[in-house]
Amino acid sequence: MSRKLFSWVLPAWKTMAAGILLAFFTVFSGAGLMGTAAYIIAAAALHPSMEALSVAIVGVRFFGLSRAVFRYAERYISHDATFRLLSRIRVFLYAAVEPQIPAAGRGKSGEMLYGLVSAVEELKYVYLRVLNPYSVAALVLIAAALFLALFSSPMVYALIVGFVAAGICWPVLIRYLAGSTVSRRDRARGRFHCLLVDTIRGITELTAYDAAGRQQEQIAAAGGNLARLQKKKVRLTGLADAGSQVITSYTLWAILFLAVPLVYAKKISGIDLAVILLVVQSSFEAVLPLGNALYSLAESRTAARRLEAVQAWTAPAASRKPGLKPRYPVPVEARSLCFSYRDSRIWTLENLSFTLAPGERVALVGPSGAGKSTMVSLLLGFWPYQSGSLRLGNFELKDCDPGEIRRHIAVVTQHTHIFNTTIRDNILLARPEAGWNELEQAAEDAALTELIERLPAGYDTLTGLNGRALSGGERQRIAIARALLKDAPLLFLDEPTAGLDPLTAREVMAGIDKLMAGRTTLLVTHQLTGLAGMDKILVLSRGKLVEQGNMRELLSRQGLFYEMWKLQQDRCNWSL
């Protein structure tokens, strides 16, 4: 068991221990029930008085009722322990994923999402399928061995051999036969679900380019591979169960072989022989689940590694110093800032130095890949920078709590995510406790009022998956309304009009102009027209700051900004 998996299990050890004891008493009651029942049946053949059987009859009633009570209590406690374990795993997963949102897009989303969900589902059984069965089997072995020791030591040895064979040797063999099936099946499931998600999301493009048939063939091939691996698992499960039953039968034959001479020697009675055999048979109830235990343990370890890998999506963030909370409004200052992604040896941002004064409007422009969006991610605390300084007032950004910082930042990006809920809930995401008047004012300032009034359900209109019921401009207006409602002192805009037609982009920018009023604003954009109202423009090229100034100053220098601006003007004139 990995250290991380052990750390999830350890806090619930008391509940798990209680579940193990209750499971042991359940098996113990079952063995007691079978033993007393065997005694009554065997003794009845000798026609004893009812008084002689009265204790055994009471024992049957007691063990029958206690088994039911212990089983119910064991199920209740074990499920409670499982849910406690599950809650810790989910908290760990969310805590690992939430700070690393940008890294989540680096993999295939369908494969990644299914991988994480299935990992959590597999790990919740580590107690029920591994820890509980082995612990109960050990306790039952001790109790059954003490019982057999009252009659014969060789029978104790036979019992121990049977338990070891069924609980350890046979599971090891099953795990050996499984080989790499666990990891291969894990990858095959991820591949299959990735193809399904890609197909659903890209069905329009697949149909338009007549590629649906090829995609279907890939899905069929991936599904066939997954089915073959699933069948192998089912066969191994059946083999494990059958092998455990065979070992149980041979152990009973061995004990019978050892007990019969004792009956002839009158060291034990025939009634004792019946009791011994049925008690031993009942005790193997604790061993039968162990056939697949090591296979389940392998699945759990694979799932745990998958969750632990989430933390490796990006470099670990710098340690935070609690209690550091800048008082807003504050200037944002970068000095000799350098940053590179974990898997890159090239600086994405190199020796960057600039200042955003409180209430200042600053535009960040440059060619694609210059590092503009990366700069926004650094300011939001998504990535740790390697060297230099990035400060909010008197505090170094990497020393501050990123959650505390983000509470004072409003963001509008080019890919605004609209949740599949109502317009009201999508806007209130920024500040759930906001009142009705504040919500209406934010919608009005974002030019959403006319749209909402046209809709039959108004604010309660469902937006569809990722806002598919809305146009691109309407989705951006919802993002602007969110930012207005949040009323944060810092505003970051990352290509807010990208992909919009010129008329819609102009309407969206009108709403953004209202949003920027009185806020420290950083606007990342490729669109160089309309920047005359910005206090300062920063020009990036290959991660370096090559120019800065207002629009008039930059045009007069005829540097990179002038070249990009002139190229856009030429394109506009050509299109006209």
Give structural attributes:
576 residues, alpha/beta, ABC transporter transmembrane region fold, Rossmann fold, 2 domains, six-stranded mixed sheet, four-stranded antiparallel sheet, 10 strands, 61% helix, ATP binding, ATPase-coupled lipid transmembrane transporter activity
Explained architecture:
It is built from 21 helices and 10 strands. It folds into 2 domains: 310 residues, ABC transporter type 1, transmembrane domain (ABC transporter transmembrane region fold), CATH 1.20.1560.10; 130 residues, 3-Layer(aba) Sandwich (Rossmann fold), CATH 3.40.50. The strands form 2 sheets. A 6-stranded mixed beta sheet has the order 6-7-8-3-9-10, with helices on both faces. A 4-stranded antiparallel beta sheet has the order 2-1-4-5, with helices on one face.
Quick structural overview:
With 576 residues, this protein is an alpha/beta fold. The chain has helices at residues 3-9, 13-44, 50-97, 101-104, 109-123, 126-149, 153-178, 181-201, 203-208, 212-264, 270-283, 293-308, 372-379, 402-406, 423-428, 436-445, 449-454, 472-486, 502-516, 551-557, 560-575, and strands spanning 332-339, 349-356, 361-365, 387-392, 395-396, 409-413, 490-494, 520-524, 536-541, 544-549. The chain has two domains: 3-312, Up-down Bundle (ABC transporter transmembrane region fold); 324-402 and 526-576, P-loop containing nucleotide triphosphate hydrolases (Rossmann fold), CATH 3.40.50.
